[in-house]
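Morning F.,

Quick status update on the modeling queue. The single chain you submitted on Monday has been processed. Sequence for confirmation:
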Amino acid sequence: MSGYGSGGYGDGAGSGGGSGAHLPQGHPYAPPAPPRGHPNSPPGPPQGQPYAQAGPPPGYPYTQSGPPPAYPYPRSGPPPGYPYPPVHGPVPPPRAEPSRARNILRGLYNPLYAAQRAFRPSRPGIVHDPEVRRLQLWRTGLGLLAWVGLTVTYNAVASADGVQGVAGERLDQSWSSVLVLVCTFPVVVGAFVAAARGGLRRMYLHRTLRPLGSVLAVMGSMGTSALAMAPELAGFRDAVGLPGRIALIVLVLWSIGFALYGIGLSLVHVFRTADIHEVLPPILAGVLVWEMALLDVVTGSYDQVPTGARVAFVLGAPVTVTALSFWELYRLRRDHGLTLRTALGR
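Structure tokens below.
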């Protein structure tokens, strides 16, 4: 019997008062645990703490990973001593937009900045295609070079008066383009707004305020020159005295810079009609350039140029602009899903 109790098959505690005294809790032959408060009951959590703390027991050989005890929150960056720097640097704060009063003050002493604010489209969400704008600049530059070459070849400039005449002719042509555009603008825009359906018509009418403002701005800036040069206003210039004349000269100089730069921006951005819709500038530009070609034929421009060169020069601009307009409409449809039909809500 002793071989089974304490010889080699038992747990060595059979002779001391029960073979299950040292069995773990949960064993089918383990004795029941004594009640709480008994002298032999196992130790529990200390008094005043209802729950035992979670964590490794004392003397646990592995330490827990985490921030040091002195740092209450985990850090978001790499740990100290990390051999690689962070990929993204600190993001700078967004640049604050200048106030309206500051923009007005800047435009008072800088007519070029005022022209940019008046003649460049600025509607939120407008589509900008830098490729088309780059081609428009190339077309404008090449057209200017072709015009200068044609003028020098068939109308030699031999004196300062000739240079002044050529410059005046070019300025008159640009001013004629602006006048034609001013007359064409309400017709094309009015037809576009009238053809729109639903609530689009009211929205487009509201968007026409800025393009109309740019038209009035360029007309008003060109009209200020009459205050300084019109013979009919000589009495007015005498009445304002010397301080008034100085102020009038400053106003005229400001208006000349504003008008010249504004004419160029108006021809490139077609009186900021993109503020109404992106498909309007190529359509209006195509109509305008064919009107200018017809105007050159009616007025007999470039009479000193041979017939073949004159035809090529007169038709070169409208054909080029029309091709560019169709390509711009194609890019708007392909890249941005904007078409004339969707613009009209049809």
